[in-house]
Amino acid sequence: MEMQTMDKLERKALKKSGTDLSRLGFALFFMIAVLTFSFLNSGGVSNNLFLAVAALIGAYMAMNIGANDVANNVGPAVGSKAMTLTMAIIIAAVFEAAGAIIAGGEVVKTIKKGIIDISAFGGNTDPFIWAMMAALLAAALWLNFATAMRAPVSTTHSIVGGVMGAGIAAAGFSIVSWGTMGKIAASWVISPVLGGIIAAAFLFAIKKTIVFKEDKVSAAKKNVPIFVALMAWAFVTYLTLKGLKKIWPSIVEVLNMLPLVSIEMSKKPSFLTALILGAIVAVFVFILVKKKLSKNTSVLENNKASVNTLFTIPLVFAAALLSFAHGANDVANAIGPLAAINDAVVNGGISSKASIPFWVMAVGAIGIAIGLALYGPKLIKTVGTEITELDQIRAFSIAMAAAITVIIASQLGLPVSSTHIAIGGVFGVGFLREWLDLNKDEKHILEEELETLEDETQTLKAYKSELKSLDAKTDKSPEDFERITILYKMISDEKALIKSTKKIIKKTEKIQYVKRDAVKKIIAAWLITVPAAAVLSAMLFFTIKGIMI
């Protein structure tokens, strides 16, 4: 028997190691292909070896984004079983790549959100190239480590920490814009809190209007179209503001060709325009969902599981749209240092903004898809199943929080992280469940134990009263002494029983739907992302500088 068990474990280990080697081999093949392409494509440019190595690091960074950051968009949908892991990976890979290539920014600030003052480099391109290379590699290494630890962290914060650390190493602490860093630090609190509150609010609203109702089918028929329409409104607004900036002028041209449509030409959509487009789509979605539910509610059962199925299709759309917007909005920022290095090498100077060549954007898009497919499942499972138990309604609430929080924050000028928002939403729905404590069986146990404790307390009082009256007697009989002995024993047993009952009640009252160890690990990873990436980047800068000099 032991030999069979050992044989099974050995076969399992060999299979796992073979899979790991295949993944590593595929990742290395992609990185070498990018290195070769970049080197051959920039053959006539001096310092083209720097650019080729930077492209290699950029490919590594892109794969780490796919392995870590993208999980937040599809994790809740997978955890709720609205889609399979394979389906989620395919949808996320396709839409992330599409968002990066179709709607990715044409121009990106090479120094994310003005973290450092590039004038401190004095126009000297070599230290600048070394700093950007160190920042890119440090961010990628930190993301790799976080993924291995199953901790979802912010790609933006990783690259910000990398740029800050390399900048300090190159030109001292005065190079850093500490006001901007303060805002980024504020986002560690703002993002998860806003995401958690909005996700919990939507979950509570769905429960009050549908789940807690006696006739859940009628309630769903009335309210599900409203919630899905709100989701459509939020996502179209979010996508318009965050995902269509690059192609907005082309969209305006097409729309203005339609009869009775006149939109003022602008470089990017305004908040009002995004809201109006979202409202138009929401009306159509409301009508469509209401019509579909009026035909199909007859087959629904009057329970929560049946209501959950109504949110499956909206969740699939949410995962796709979140992935598209992430690809369009965040990928360019993450590969910004590569774009900066390309600009410095090709043009021989330093610019606060740099155009992103198509091949650089393609490296980001394809790298994300590969990283997600090879190493994304770890973090998808963490976000979807290892923090709190999710169903379709909870996952829907988290998706709503992701879109609405970004919209609100962007209009108020608050710095937020999409990763922190999504994880904050997962925390929010979990903690709301704890607050509501909807587990009827546990409540029933608690009520029974409280009644038992009350009866035991009354019994204890009766024993003590009897003991007191016997102790007061001056002429005790042998029977009285025997009874006193018995009473002491009964009082001791009763106290022990009351103590154990209190422990049961305390344990029952502390039902935890959110795994505290996961919360601690993730928050710790958030707090150390910027300083860890900064220290690592500074060390890498000095290493590169030492090699080059």
Give structural notes.
The protein is mainly α. It has helices at about 1-40, 50-70, 70-80, 85-105, 125-150, 155-170, 180-210, 215-245, 250-255, 270-295, 305-310, 310-330, 330-335, 335-345, 360-385, 390-410, 420-435, 440-470, 480-510, 515-549; strands at about 105-110, 355. The protein has a two-stranded antiparallel ribbon with strand order 1-2. The longest helix has about 40 residues, at about 1-40. The chain starts with a helix and ends with a helix. The mean pLDDT is about 80. InterPro entries: Phos_transporter (IPR001204).
Key traits:
mainly alpha; globular; 549 residues
User: What gross morphology would you assign?
Assistant: globular
Helix/strand/pairing category: mainly alpha
**Number of helices, where a helix is a run of at least 4 consecutive DSSP H or I residues:** 20
User: What's the structural domain tally?
Assistant: 2
What is the number of strand segments?
Answer: 2
Low-confidence stretches: none
In the sheet with the most strands, the strands line up as 1-2
Helix content: over 70%
- Beta-strand share of residues: under 5%
Per-chain topology:
Elements (H helix, E strand, L loop, with lengths): L1 H40 L6 H21 L2 H9 L5 H19 L3 E3 L15 H24 L6 H17 L6 H34 L4 H28 L4 H9 L14 H26 L7 H5 L3 H18 L1 H4 L1 H12 L5 E3 L2 H29 L5 H21 L5 H19 L3 H33 L5 H32 L6 H33 L1
Antiparallel strand pairs: 1-2
Helix pairs in contact: 1-2, 1-15, 2-5, 2-14, 2-15, 3-4, 3-15, 3-16, 4-12, 4-15, 5-6, 5-14, 5-20, 6-20, 7-8, 7-16, 7-17, 8-10, 8-12, 8-16, 12-16, 16-17, 18-19
